[in-house]
Amino acid sequence: MNAFAFAARSLIRQPGRSALGILGIAAVGALLFDMLLLSRGLVVSFRDLLDRDGFDIRVTATDAGPIGGPRLPHASPIAAEVAALPEVADAVPILMSDAEASHPGGPPVAISLLGIDARSGRHPWTISSGHDLEDVAAGTSGELLVNQALAASLTAALGDEIAIRVRCGPGRAPLPPSTFRVVGVAEFPFDDAVQLSGVVRRARMAGACDADGRDEADMILVSSRQGGGPDAAVSAIRRRRPDVHAATNEQIVARLAVSRFTYFRQISTVLSTITLLFGFLLITVLLTVSVNQRLGEIAAVRALGFSRARVAADVLWQSALLVGIGGLLALPVGVVLSIWLDAILKTMPGIPIALHFFVFEPRSLLLHAVLLAVTAVLAAAYPIALVTTLPIATTLRNEVVS
Q1: What is the DSSP string of 147-203?
Q2: What 8-state DSSP symbol labels residue 135?
Q3: Buried/exposed 130-145: b ≥16 CB within 10 Å, e otherwise
Q4: What is the tens place of the pLDDT at every residue in 33-72?
Q5: Does residue 43 contact residue 363 with C-beta atoms inside 8 Å?
Q6: Alpha carbons 376 and 327: distance in angstroms, whole number
Q7: Structural contact between residues 283 and 379, judged by C-beta atoms closer than 8 angstroms
Q8: Is 253 exposed, middle or buried, given 0-12, 13-18 or 19+ CB atoms closer than 10 A?
């Protein structure tokens, strides 16, 4: 009988202990798998959100980013220069601001308003009903896209007119509320469950703060030309306009991974380490107890000619079987657990609906297998030392006496 079959028979002879060990490893492995998904989940999910709208470069006034940073002046000429570059397929300036919206007869509600030049089929939203801005000719009332939450809050339907007062920032007094007509309902990837969002044309939004309508933008969304790639486009933009800051989605995500998402990576590392420690102790205790109960049997087979390597392989295979079966059971348990934990974490305020904390990557599965395999080997080290240094004659004599 080879070492694998011998180890499997040893586990079958103790079904209760083996089952409890496998279930313990499954629980430990499920938590470890979830922590590996969490370690890069936000980074991968955020990168997916950035890439989803078809723009792979963001151009801002400084490296501070569009939130809290200064706006780009003369946004239209800058966007035209960027769009004219051979490495660039499209460049769309956008303007962001807080605002108040009200339906006739209803109270005003605070909303997030986005202004965009509606000339391109690329935009950071998906139409769920009605028409998009570029599909509707500009009218005197202005055209407005709303998300489902805003439509429900205002009880507004397609074709209804909404009064919007834009908050223009310090030093700029807003003009009276402007009237906009709802032309479509859209889904915005960065909206959370309760966020109220709307989109209008950028010129109309700028005109709601200044009679002359300043040509400003918080950032310019840029799509690189196919075949060139975003890195080549960023280099071309920096050569053409060194006064602005251009960054690829990958660079933005890398910066956020260091400044914003470090907390979750640290939590994942700490919990993964603790989980592996518990798994190591569990397997070590199970194998040690099993070996101590079989000392007489092990001494007997050693006396019959079994080598130290053979009995060591028996213990190592027992560890591998426990961890292997438990690790396989851990995967479906971990998937179910990650879905539940993800739903809990997404209830935090300000978390976009489309963002996920736990994201599967093939590297996570590979790392999960490697860590469990290393744990199995290390946990078997002490029981292997017991069986390989076992004094055969003394153990058999003690077994007979007892």
Answers
A1: -HHHHHHHT--TT-EEEEEE---TT-PPPSPEEEEEEEEEE-TT--TT--EEEEEHH
A2: G
A3: bebbeebeeeeebbbb
A4: 999 998 888 888 888 888 887 888 999 888 776 666 788 8
A5: no
A6: 11
A7: yes
A8: buried
